[in-house]
Amino acid sequence: MTVILDTAHPAAPVDADPRMSLIGLERSGLGEALAGIGVPERQRRMRANQLWRWIYNRGATSFEEMTDIGRELRAELAAAFSLARPEIVTEQISTDGTRKWLLRLAPDVDGRRHEVETVYIPEADRGTLCISSQVGCTLTCSFCHTGTQTLVRNLTAAEIVSQVLIARDRLGEWPQALAANPSPPVGGRYITNVVLMGMGEPLYNFDNVKAAVDIIADGEGLSLSKRRITLSTSGVVPEIVRAGAEIGTMLAISLHATTDEVRNRLVPLNKKYPIAELLEACRNYPGVSNARRITFEYVMLKGVNDSPADARRLVSLLKHIPAKINLIPFNPWPGAPYECSDWQTIERFAEIVNKAGYASPVRTPRGRDIMAACGQLKSASERLRARDRRTMEAPLGA
Ligand code: SAH
Ligand code: SF4
Questions:
Q1: Strand runs (DSSP E) across the chain, as ranges?
Q2: CA distances to 43, 224, 225 from 215, in Å
């Protein structure tokens, strides 16, 4: 494990930058911002398009770079607006090439600065960026470390989009840098896919997630098509169909159990939206087809949900739903009340599912050494920082 940046000491609350960030605004929002500094109406659309391309196509971090915008307007823009991203607190690189960034958000009105994590997973045929949609999570799935965090707030569209910008900044994935480095220095691919599988339940932050996805998928900007963006939900049934119609990404469902009794324990939201209702919503997901399958995530917990009978029930539950099954070895965290199933058990489970005609890749855990694997996010950094803080404070208290 390599820690490249480490400024991980508690920051004193700082005043918010009085300048409004232009990141996360739709084109219409950019037009309104331009109106606010007196840009004449007939120029606004053209200027908004220029800003859009600089921000999302070229990754501009200052107005100074925007050479096709006159010097005077650039100065006015810089006086009124910023292009600041959240601050990178640490960047860790796993032995397997996975990178994890701990990001510190701009201060809330009370001056507190929250943190979220973003993970990049390079593979030979794809590069996946796993982004967060909330600080913490209001749900309390019993196998998920994020679910043990009490502090929760929604991320803004800007904070969601910024995770992609920061990853591209750090990987050097903007046109200027790409000319020199057509593939990433560590191997694998640059970002080809985005998954909303970091911290938080994306469907509880519907509007901001929708706005962020629209920006990330925009063909004149970051250009990651919606077929390459996957939203993972623990099963907020009323929002699933709406998400299909209004957000339009690929869908992943955190199923994890084949009976309501077990799922109630693992994913307490199941008491509100039981398995039958959840699967009905999946059947009705707009655009679902063999070419656009729904991914069902299934975490392998020893002695809880990993029997051959579970595998058979899973297959029969998913009958008539175009589905992929993603078996996830449980990633442990300190104090977790579960263990990962044995490898043999996972293989037997996968075999039953495969024989029934479902692709069921077992997700290789990535970045476990930097606590970047599924369900491990955030809390490690919290603990590390608490320890740091105590070390820092001890001499003062002595
Ligand atoms: N809240 C959303 C998205 C974030 S969780 C959801 O629940 O779908 C992303 C995936 O990681 C989910 O499938 C989740 O169930 C899984 N996960 C959570 N904790 C895990 C752990 N300790 N080991 C393996 N996978 C875990
Ligand atoms: Fe929240 Fe997803 Fe973790 Fe459940 S698995 S607590 S929904 S982040």
A1: 2-6, 20-21, 81-82, 87-93, 99-104, 115-122, 127-130, 134-135, 153-154, 193-196, 229-233, 250-254, 294-300, 323-329
A2: 22, 9, 10
pLDDT at 7: 45
The pair of three-digit structure tokens given for residue 147, joined into one six-digit string: 């679910």
Residue 199 CA: nearest ligand 1 atom is: 4
Contact present, 325 and 169 (Cβ < 8 Å): no
At residue 348, the pLDDT reads 96
Which residue type occupies 231? L
- Measured distance CA(181)–CA(93) in Å, rounded: 19
CA–centroid distance, 267 to ligand 2, in Å, is 8
- Best mutation site among 155, 205, 253, 328 for ligand 1 pocket (most ligand atoms within 8 Å of CB): 328
Which amino acid would we find at residue 142? S
Ligand 1 atom 8: residue of nearest CA: 233
Active site residues per annotation? 117, 374
Beta strand 115-122 pairing with 99-104: antiparallel
Is the Cβ atom of 299 under 6 angstroms away from ligand 2?
A: no
Which regions of the chain are under pLDDT 50? 1-2, 6-14, 379-398
Q: In which residue are the tokens 């949609």 written?
A: 133
- The tokens for 66 are 């925007």
